[in-house]
Specification:
Elements (H helix, E strand, L loop, with lengths): L1 H8 L5 E3 L7 H5 L8 E2 L3 H6 L1 E3 L5 H6 L2 H10 L4 E4 L3 E4 L4 H15 L2 E3 L4 E7 L2 E7 L2 E4 L3 E3 L14 H8 L4 E7 L3 E3 L2 H4 L5 E11 L2 E12 L3 E3 L1 H7 L12 E5 L6 H14 L18 H8 L12 H12 L1 E8 L7 E6 L17 E3 L7 E2 L4 H16 L1
Parallel strand pairs: 1-6, 10-19
Antiparallel strand pairs: 2-5, 3-20, 4-5, 7-8, 8-9, 11-18, 12-15, 12-17, 13-14, 13-16, 14-15, 16-17
Length: about 400
């Protein structure tokens, strides 16, 4: 939609082909239906939050950055608000208002939209793309912008079928992989914690003993393992081959306290509950659902009287609280991945125009490109910036 708008603003006659029954189907569910459409951070922070090939986005971000996006939506009637982590949402909390803003302006610009129209092939003459084939006939064009997304959330139409068209043209592609995706873990006691949310914990991920990721924030235990903001971000740093190495997640449940301070805190709690059984003496320290798992992992008998717990046992309890571990055995795949890692290799695209170097008249934008970012509105910013740049340069 942003590519169509940018091209129409340049005076081009623009037709949008959409295989779904409506525009913006994936946008509709973004941010749990609220649509975190960008991030109000400094430009350097934009680049810092891009995981794959951030330098490729230099022209795109500088040509149409996050503040340009906010100004664009505000100019076209969408009021917005900035929340924790500089996340930007429509004031109404309705993603449909973001879509409506785009579609209304497209109508004003005279953009033609054909819904339920699936692109099945590209028309070309030699090294020039001259249009597209669809299940409703062919369309000739001076330029074609492909912006069909990745392979995540196939229920929204992003199933990667357009990637096949590019592969058939021998455009160089990086293999697709799920990213910003929940992780599956091996330990049974983790599964017993389903539904528990932990806030303000520090999470690290190790592969073969090497730290791949570390951050503090919020996470969620599920029936298959773990999800939530920390876990989704951690998944961005795990390559496909890492999963066979059984990555280890380490959670510091009390990051504000070092081991000495935590031990002193436990001593205070124990002194107030010295005649209770161990399993009944942790309610001030931990959520009730987590207590049985911590008790089991501490190797202290659950019915042991608190005043009988030794210094060595207490030390082991501190270790468990500061290093609560889980083994990653996989992820939830494209069905639950927010974004796709991989796509058209950045070396195959002119970063100043989004043109595919091998073919005149062919452009790509958004998640089809081998760039991906963390949560917080950064992936949508990539979509706006690359779409805008492609539209301006056709």
């Amino acid at each position: 939609m942003m590519a169509a708008i940018a091209a129409a603003e340049e005076g081009h006659v623009v037709t949008v082909l959409e295989k779904n029954e409506k525009l913006g189907k994936k946008l509709f569910i973004t941010g749990k239906g609220r649509c975190n459409f960008t991030n109000a951070c400094e430009k350097d922070t934009l680049f810092e939050n891009v995981i794959s090939n951030p330098k490729f986005l230099y022209s795109a971000f500088h040509g149409f950055d996050n503040f340009s996006v906010m100004e664009f939506f505000e100019r076209h009637g969408l009021k917005y608000k900035i929340e924790r982590g500089n996340r930007v949402f429509p004031l109404s909390d309705h993603s449909s208002d973001v879509i409506k803003t785009l579609t209304t302006y497209m109508e004003q610009l005279g953009v033609t939209v054909h819904l339920r129209t699936k692109v099945t092939g590209l028309l070309k003459e030699g090294a020039r793309v001259t249009g597209v084939k669809t299940d409703h006939g062919s369309y000739t064009a001076d330029a074609v912008i492909l912006s069909t997304g990745g392979k995540s959330y196939p229920s929204c139409g992003a199933d990667g079928d357009t990637w096949k068209l590019l592969e058939d043209l021998r455009v160089e592609m990086t293999d697709a992989a799920p990213s910003l995706v929940p992780l599956c873990t091996a330990e049974e006691d983790i599964l017993s914690l389903q539904g528990l949310t932990l806030k303000n914990v520090a999470l690290s991920v190790f592969v073969d003993g090497k730290k791949k990721y570390q951050e503090q924030g919020e996470m969620l235990f599920t029936h298959f393992g773990m999800s939530g903001p920390l876990i989704l971000s951690a998944s961005c740093y795990l390559a496909k081959e890492d999963y066979s190495r059984k990555p280890v997640i380490s959670i510091d449940l009390k990051p504000a306290l070092n081991e000495k301070t935590l031990d002193e805190r436990i001593l205070r709690d124990f002194s107030e509950n010295r005649n209770k059984q161990f399993r009944n003496a942790l309610s001030d320290l931990l959520p009730s659902k987590l207590i049985p798992v911590i008790v089991a992992r501490s190797m202290i008998a659950s019915d042991k009287t608190v005043h009988d717990i030794t210094k060595e046992e207490r030390k082991n309890l501190v270790r468990v609280l500061k290093d609560f571990r889980a083994t990653v055995i996989g992820n939830r795949g494209f069905q639950e991945a927010i974004i796709t890692r991989g796509g058209v290799k950045t070396g195959s695209i002119d970063p100043k125009t989004m043109a595919v170097k091998q073919y005149r008249g062919l452009y790509v934008a958004g998640e089809m490109i081998d760039v991906d970012a963390l949560t917080g509105g950064f992936n949508l910013q990539i979509a706006w910036s690359t779409g805008y740049l492609a539209g301006k340069n056709v």
